[in-house]
Design goal:
This protein has 404 residues and is α+β, with helices and mostly antiparallel strands. It has 11 helices and 17 strands.
Length: 404
């Protein structure tokens, strides 16, 4: 049994896996409103906790000063209005790359004005949509802009990150009601600029937004899938069976296993509030080192039933790459004597590295994220190498009967 080391070429592996049957397609109209002002946060970040992408806070943070800066900046970007309409060209491709059984039509708000009660608001005209045969509608109300990060330049200047935020509203015209709403944010983590650069270099905003479009589309798609929005859209029995409830499946399978980490001296488990996520770390170094274990399911509802470990790792790498977490292919991967068929790779994270170790065990994918939050991550790794190997080789995952 040999350890496998995976590098950047895995991203090129086939990662477009369908999650539903091939006989039917779900027809959806997507309307993008990209006509909002550039959002500029000079005084505070628009984000609070909430994982990799963060959570957008209230628009009340956008004050008069930010409005003035936004207007000044847009005057410099004479072609920005045209540019903001380009997002629709990416959505169909990105959604279909995840699910070929979605029949997506995507329009800018200006192209879909007849479907709005008024050209000045976002209230949809249900009757006009029904008349044209649209049962399911997704409205993406997006903002583009930049916000001040905590980082400083060598000259102690404030640095800014480029971001896109989107408020998603999902409608069903048959029932004349919202299926649900959610917000998502994506930003360029790997690049930051001082404000003068953004205002004088007209290529910065467009180039950054082009690279973010795929990220925000993936985030929206995953929220639609995981939140059962596709499942709620379907009506016929054929489509209903093709779009099963992801939430129901995950809830059921979350009770199908038990995970037990080995007892390692000086370590403790930290609560996560998530039945599929486990964090263990040494008490003394918990702020700079930890192992996070994620359990995922090889099930049809997630389109992962027949994935190999290599294919699942490729899918993970693609998502990390789309979220601006760079795969490390320059530094030598630290050696692990774990004696199983694992995929091992390393990702660059702020102030350190994350070594990701993945395998498939029966109906489960197990991912261990070894976080080494120091510039000299090798010293930290070597300090805990034996403990890491004990953790990876002695944990227990066993399946339990699912009670109906």
């Amino acid at each position: 049994m040999s350890k496998k080391v995976i590098y950047l070429f895995l991203i090129l592996l086939l990662s477009n896996y369908t999650i539903i049957g091939q006989n039917n397609k779900l027809k959806i109209l997507v309307i993008v409103n990209g006509e909002n002002k550039l959002r500029i946060e000079l005084n505070n970040t628009p984000f609070v906790g909430g994982g990799l992408l963060g959570v957008l806070i209230s628009k009340s943070a956008q004050d008069a000063s930010n409005d003035r800066n936004s207007e000044e900046l847009q005057k410099l970007l004479s072609d920005f209005t045209t540019y903001k309409s380009e997002h629709v060209n990416h959505i169909i491709e990105d959604f279909n790359s995840n699910n070929v059984n979605l029949d997506i039509t995507c329009l800018n708000k200006k192209e879909a004005l007849k479907y709005f009660s008024s050209p000045n608001d976002l209230k949809l005209d249900n009757n006009k949509l029904k008349t044209d045969g649209w049962e399911n509608v997704i409205l993406i109300d997006e903002e583009l802009g930049y916000f001040r990060s905590e980082a400083k330049s060598n000259n102690n200047e404030s640095l800014y990150h480029i971001f896109i935020s989107a408020n998603i509203i999902v409608y069903n015209t048959v029932n004349n009601k919202k299926i649900g709403t959610f917000k998502t944010v994506n930003l360029k983590r790997d690049k930051s600029y001082n404000e003068n650069e953004i205002k004088t270099n007209k290529t910065i905003l467009p180039e950054n937004y082009i690279s973010i479009y795929k990220n925000i589309n993936l985030s929206i798609y995953n929220r639609l899938l995981g939140g059962d929005f596709f499942h709620k859209m379907v009506k016929s029995e054929n489509l209903n069976s093709s779009f099963p409830s992801v939430r129901t499946a995950v809830k059921k399978y979350a009770k199908s296993f038990e995970f037990k980490a080995p007892q390692i001296e000086g370590w403790r488990e930290f609560p996560t509030g998530n039945d599929l996520l486990f964090i263990h770390a040494p008490r003394k170094d918990k702020t700079v080192f930890a192992i996070t274990t994620e359990i995922d399911f090889a099930i049809e509802e997630l389109g992962q039933k027949d994935l190999s470990t290599e294919e699942y790792a490729s899918k993970t790498i693609s998502r990390l790459n789309d979220s601006n977490f760079e795969l490390n292919i320059t530094d030598q991967l630290p050696s692990l004597n774990i004696g199983k068929e694992w995929i091992v790779y390393m990702v660059n994270v702020p102030n350190g590295k994350s070594i990701i170790v993945q395998t498939k065990m029966d109906n489960y994918f197990v991912s261990h994220h070894i976080s080494l939050m120091k510039e000299d991550y090798k010293l930290l790794f070597n300090k805990y190498k034996t403990d890491i190997e004990d953790y990876l080789t002695k944990f227990i995952l066993f399946e339990k009967p699912i009670q109906k």
